[in-house]
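Morning F.,

Quick status update on the modeling queue. The single chain you submitted on Monday has been processed. Sequence for confirmation:
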Amino acid sequence: MTDRPASWRMPTQKQMEKLATSMGRETARQRQLGPQDEMPDEYWRALLDDASVQTAEGGHMGPSLRLREIPQHVLRVSCRRCERIVEIQKVDAVRLYGQQASWKEVAQRLLDNTCQNRTGRHEEDGCWPAFAPV
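Structure tokens below.
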């Protein structure tokens, strides 16, 4: 073991700039963003473009959607606790719970009807639905 700090292996800022100019590149002299600075327009544009792609795909089923608003024919929910996956066809879900039922309520009922983790305590009992794509 040596007592030298790990920084002895890393070149200094001046050495890195010298190396970059010797390779024919100009070093970036942009001021770094701090927590109090405004985010650049490119950042917000990238976020908005990504959000519009997700909504255009239509593949995400949020828990707040009503059954009539979901485009998929097979609805699938998984449990975070026991890792079970329960599927139901949209037609059957509409027949059992109605078109106005929210996907969150239907998913919770589907998991609760077949739950295998019963502890007896209301706070801990039942399954925990995960609404991310399975």
